[in-house]
Amino acid sequence: MRGTVRPRIQAAGPAGRRWLRLAATLRPISPATAAVRYPLFPLACGRGGQVPALTMAKEVDRFMELVVVRHGETSWNASRIVQGQMDPELNEIGKQQAVVVAHRLAREARPAAIYSSDLKRAAETAEIIAKACDVSNLVLTEALRERHMGYLQGLTWDDAMNKSPGVFKGFANFEVKNGLDFDDRNRELPGGGESLNQLSERCISYLNKVAQNHIGERVIVVGHGAAILELCRHTDPPNSSIRRKIPNTSLNIFRISGVTGRWILERCGDVGHLSENGFLENAFGGDGASA
To answer: In what helix (H) or strand (E) does residue 60 lie, and over which residues does it extend?
Structure first.
């Protein structure tokens, strides 16, 4: 059968054995499908125009799997207060949400490392996940913080909208809508706040460096709603405007090439673990609000 890994193939070292194990689970695919799934590297086609499974495994091995988790709920989330880089802790519901998502992740492949924003709501969520997954490599960093929202931080959502309606052009509760052009994305928020482009550059440049250090591995990142929306937007085609929702402790799965920096979004806003445990109605952000 085309694409079958035969016993005579010898794997050189741990990396080669990992390719063989992965290849054994893969079926041949057409070149057209391969071009969409694995666009970064030339794939040699086998007989009949199929991509050999071993080749597919090698291409997959050049990517880092990135699992991005939004932090659990805070009292500010529940009261619809703009948090930005202010530092409230998780409330009791948020802690329970973090335990639930941690148990889900603990049943999946063990991550090589966990990276997190150093803000308390993210760091607490990351610590709960690290304990459940038995991961000692936990890195807290300012690079993964939420967008700085300037003088809007600490205001209720309604007050922020009334105070500066122009700041939220193109947005509905931080959910991207049509009509947001380059000038809008480049506008810094008054009071020391960041533009969307600054937020995007800060997070993506940091995670590209992480990908270079974790090729072929799984990494968990704990972050914030507006920042995660920017990661998703980074994978979109030019001039697109895809609406997404990022609830508390939702899972968002990416693959990042450690060689070229290409991002692929595989899953967004997954809260299956919350619906199974009755927390979905409390996952603030299901309505699109994130900061």
So the answer is: helix 53-60
Catalytic residues: 71, 146
Dist. CA 127–CA 139, nearest whole Å = 10
Q: Which two tokens stand for residue 98?
A: 């973090």
Task: Give one word for 119, left, alpha or beta, with left for phi > 0 and alpha for psi -120 to 50.
Answer: beta
Report the alpha-carbon distance of residue 269 to residue 274 in Å, rounded. 11
With tokens 């914030």, the residue in question is: 224
Question: What backbone torsions phi and psi does residue 137 show, to the nearest 5 degrees?
Answer: -85, 85
For residue 14, give every residue at least 6 positions away whose Cβ sits within 8 Å of its Cβ, in sequence order, or none: none
Q: Which residue has the tokens 């148990």?
A: 103
List, for the chain, all residue ranges whose pLDDT scores fall below the cut of 50: 1-12, 15-16, 19, 22-23, 25-26, 29, 31, 33-51, 170, 172-179, 286-290
Among 173, 148, 196, 154, CA closest to 285? 173
Nearest by Cα to 60 from 30, 76, 40: 40
DSSP-assigned letters across all residues of 189-230: PTTTPPPHHHHHHHHHHHHHHHHHH-TTSEEEEEE-HHHHHH
Q: pLDDT (tens digit, 9 = 90+) per residue, 101-146?
A: 999 999 999 999 999 999 999 999 999 999 999 999 999 999 999 9
Nearest Cα to Cα of residue 77 among 148, 173, 169: 173
Judge whether 117 and 140 are in contact, CB under 8 Å: yes
Q: Is the pTM of this model over 0.90?
A: no
DSSP-based three-state secondary structure for 133: helix
Q: How far is CA 256 from CA 30, 112, 123, 265, in A?
A: 22, 15, 23, 9
Do 261 and 62 meet the contact criterion of CB atoms below 8 Å apart? Answer: no
